[in-house]
Design a protein that fits this description.
five-stranded mixed beta sheet, mainly beta, 6 helices
């Protein structure tokens, strides 16, 4: 039995105030406490420190319901037994004004050579939907369910609540998603949905369940104008314009196409090198052929090179010169004149 004593929490679990700080007392000299909030053990089998573990410093703020697990690591490198506690905080029920569809990837970019080699040859494996809490309160999402288009019950979600500004991802295939996007978004993935998002458009409905099932959001997207054309197999996702304003997701005018192929699963654009952009914008058979995907090529014939499409957020396979050609102007700021470009 380990000689090191397990950590002692200031509160042993249960209901706490939103943002309440849980402290650890009586840490021996030279020892450290490591903890996780996702229910995993901070100590891996064999004794190594988990990459998900955090080092305790001066308190652990409870913002959402969670399972807190911690171990003491002595100065001699010995782990203590595990201390575990489950905490709950008051949660608001989600509403159409607090929770929005913020992104839909219904027709993902082509499969790359590396993804195909890993066993994923169907672009639909990389579909995802992102929901975002735009309110100032933490909302519980356990009573949500997709009832049309795709199926997913949030009672089974790995993410049960959303703090203000946070998002949850529901993905088509988690392993495929990790191959394309890495593991940086794992904490936001609620699970895998059943079914597929139709490339030609379809209705999607999110319900709030309970004693009565209440529709929260419904969207019937299409793959033609006025819906964002670049989201229809040209690499982009559909992004909700101004999510904080809670626009009507049923209106095509509420959506734009992401500037980057692959979308923004973390909520913000991820900088792409030209080679990464190239691998997402083109099929595996095209992404190594400079005549098609090289920086000077113009495969869609709109007069804009691939390099310019990459720099300006255009689509390499969708003729978009009408809005992508920049407009030049002179802008004065602080007494200085600057040449500025603007594109639409």
């Amino acid at each position: 039995w380990p000689a090191a004593s397990p950590p002692a929490f200031s509160v042993d679990g249960g209901d706490v105030r939103l943002g309440q700080s849980i402290t650890v007392s009586a840490i021996p000299a030279g020892a450290s406490v490591y903890y996780t909030t996702d229910g995993s053990d901070p100590r891996l089998a064999g004794g190594a420190l988990s990459s998900l573990a955090k080092k305790y410093t001066d308190g652990i703020s409870i913002e959402v319901p969670l399972i807190l697990r911690a171990r003491m690591l002595s100065a001699a490198g010995a782990w203590s037994p595990l201390t575990e506690a489950r905490f709950s905080v008051p949660l608001e029920q989600p509403s159409a004004a607090s929770l929005v569809f913020s992104e839909i990837m219904y027709n993902p970019p082509p499969v790359s050579a590396a993804e195909e080699a890993a066993g994923y040859s169907d672009p639909d494996d990389f579909e995802f939907i992102r929901l975002t809490n735009i309110s100032q309160e933490t909302v519980g999402i356990e009573d949500l369910r997709f009832s049309d288009g795709i199926s997913f019950d949030f009672a089974l979600s790995e993410v049960r609540s959303l703090a203000p500004g946070r998002s949850v991802l529901i993905v088509g295939n988690r392993k495929a998603f990790n191959i394309r996007y890495g593991n940086a978004y794992n904490a936001s993935i609620g699970g895998e949905f059943s079914g597929k998002l139709k490339n030609g458009g379809e209705a999607i409905q999110l319900d709030l369940t309970g004693s009565l099932s209440t529709p929260l959001h419904s969207i019937d997207y299409e793959d033609n104008l006025p819906w964002p054309r670049a989201a229809d197999g040209f690499g982009s996702s559909m992004l909700l314009l101004n999510p904080a304003g809670s626009p009507d997701p049923a209106l095509a005018s509420s959506w734009i196409a992401s500037a980057h192929p692959g979308g923004h699963p973390g909520g913000d654009p991820v900088p792409l090198t030209y080679e990464k952009w190239r691998s997402l914008a083109f099929a595996a058979s095209q992404s190594t052929r400079d005549a098609i995907s090289g920086p000077l090529a113009d495969p869609d014939g709109d007069g804009i090179s691939n390099l310019a499409e990459y720099a300006l957020g255009g689509s390499a396979l969708l003729a978009d010169s009408e809005w992508l050609h920049p407009r030049l102007s002179i802008v004065r700021d602080g007494g200085q004149a600057y040449l500025a470009t603007e594109h639409f």
